[in-house]
Design a protein that fits this description.
Elements lengths: L19 E11 L2 E2 L5 E6 L4 E6 L5 E5 L6 E2 L5 E5 L15 E9 L3 E9 L4 E7 L2 E5 L1
Antiparallel strand pairs: 1-2, 1-3, 1-7, 3-4, 4-5, 6-7, 8-9, 9-10, 10-11
Length: about 140
């Protein structure tokens, strides 16, 4: 699944068989209001590998091997907060669970558009780019 602008990234199927140990997310905060959805999500697995899921400027879904970054002050445009307990999203329900399967969907011009991660309990989390924002749904 190759994005013309961001490349192929990391093969997310490497998560299969691994246990989700930590989830870190970043959120945009402006005038005291936090964004509805996270900007980035990092899935840290039982081998200590970190998989970052985010969106690209061309509305692709980026999946890459990357450690969480720190918070960022953007002056008048707000700040980016990063942490494990900053907000609710579907991956948090799966801490301690094994990844059973991963499926991807791609479009020829933009690369990866959707990623679906299924867990051992049968529940699934879908990540996609919705109007430029990362959207996580069950």
């Amino acid at each position: 699944m190759v994005c013309p602008l961001h490349g192929a990234g990391t093969d997310p199927t490497r998560l299969v068989g691994r246990t989700l140990r930590r989830v870190v997310a970043s959120w945009h905060v402006s005038e005291g209001e936090r964004s509805e959805a996270p900007l980035d999500v990092w899935l840290i697995d039982s081998l200590g590998d970190s998989t970052r899921i985010t969106t690209g400027s061309d509305r692709c879904l980026i999946v890459e091997s990357a450690a969480p970054h720190g918070p960022c002050d953007m002056g008048e445009w707000g700040r980016v907060e990063v942490g494990e307990d900053l907000g609710d999203h579907p991956f948090l329900r799966h801490l301690g669970q094994r990844v059973a399967s991963v499926a991807e969907v791609a479009a020829p011009r933009t690369g990866r558009t959707h990623l679906e991660i299924a867990f051992a309990d049968g529940d699934r989390v879908r990540a996609d780019c919705w109007e430029g924002d990362l959207r996580l749904t069950r």
